[in-house]
TrEMBL record:
Keywords: Hydrolase, Metal-binding. It comes from the Bacteria. The keyword NAD does not apply. SUPFAM superfamilies: Metallo-dependent hydrolases. It holds the Pfam family TatD_DNase. It comes from Shewanella piezotolerans (strain WP3 / JCM 13877). This is Hydrolase, TatD family.
Length: 268
């Protein structure tokens, strides 16, 4: 692994975005340019998660084109647009992709009480995807909003040995510790840069560095004070610096540990 030197003050290991929807149409007009800018900045890889059946084909095509690891799954926001065949089709696609070393996870999937999709349906679709993670021995990329007790109860009894990541984590240290205790990582994104994200900043300051992976959830989750109309993996160095200052460690040390965490999680 080579050490990057972006500028005089910022010597770091390469960065990996554990969660960015770079297949979305927001990137259609300048995707190639963005990948070039990411390379120049030291962003080595980006994991592209799946969200719904109608997007899988294009997502996998773009992942192939730019040599990105990807995940396949059904996001809780898209449970209402599923058909009876969707879960069977997901399993079929996973079977076909099983030998593909770029397939690294199931997801994103999970529970979201703030969304209109019926919660009972979300639960059954998420449970089915936990079983797929067990069957295919892949980690889970989990979206969880206002449903942490239900989520923790499901993960506690799951036999999924590869565990996974609670993406876009925004809770305090106590909740964070419960996930870490079960073997899950926490995906830390642009929210960390917001001045009023006190709980999340406390989590990052107090938990061991081994608990975290970096993510942007691009194009969503644009940080406050950003002058761009979309989020992108180009904010990763800012996240890394913020994490280093909260953990009171150097950028080099933080970047090395985060690189190891995400590489281990997804077997990159
Ligand atoms: Zn996402």
């Amino acid at each position: 692994m080579t050490l990057l030197v972006n500028d005089e003050q910022f010597k770091i290991f390469p960065m990996i975005d554990s969660h960015a929807h770079l297949d979305f149409s927001e990137f259609d007009h300048d995707r190639g340019e963005l990948f070039q800018q990411m390379r120049d900045l030291g962003v080595e890889q980006v994991v592209i998660p799946g969200v719904s059946e109608d997007k899988w084909a294009n997502q996998v095509r773009i992942a192939k084109q730019f040599d990105c690891p990807f995940a396949l799954g059904i996001h809780p926001w898209f449970c209402h647009s599923m058909t009876n065949q969707t879960l069977a089709n997901l399993r079929e696609l996973l079977l076909r992709s099983q030998q593909d070393e770029k397939l690294v996870a199931i997801g994103e999937c999970g529970l979201d009480k703030l969304h209109k999709s019926n919660f009972a349906t979300q639960l059954s679709v998420f449970k089915a995807q936990i079983l797929l993670a067990e069957e295919f021995e892949l980690p889970l990329i989990i979206h969880c909003v206002k449903s942490h007790e239900e989520m923790l109860n499901l993960l506690k009894v799951s036999k999924n040995v590869r565990k996974g990541v609670i993406h876009g984590f925004y809770g305090g240290p106590e909740l964070a510790s419960r996930y870490v205790h079960l073997g899950y990582k926490l995906g830390i994104g642009g929210l960390l840069l917001n001045d009023n994200a006190h709980k999340l900043q406390q989590t990052v300051a107090e938990l061991p560095l081994s608990a975290f992976v970096l993510e942007t959830d691009s194009p969503a989750m644009r940080p406050q004070n950003s002058d761009s109309d979309r989020n992108s993996p180009l904010i990763l160095p800012l996240l890394l610096k913020k994490m280093a200052s909260l953990q009171k460690k150097t950028n080099v040390l933080i970047s090395e540990q985060l690189y190891l965490n995400v590489s281990q999680l997804f077997d990159l």
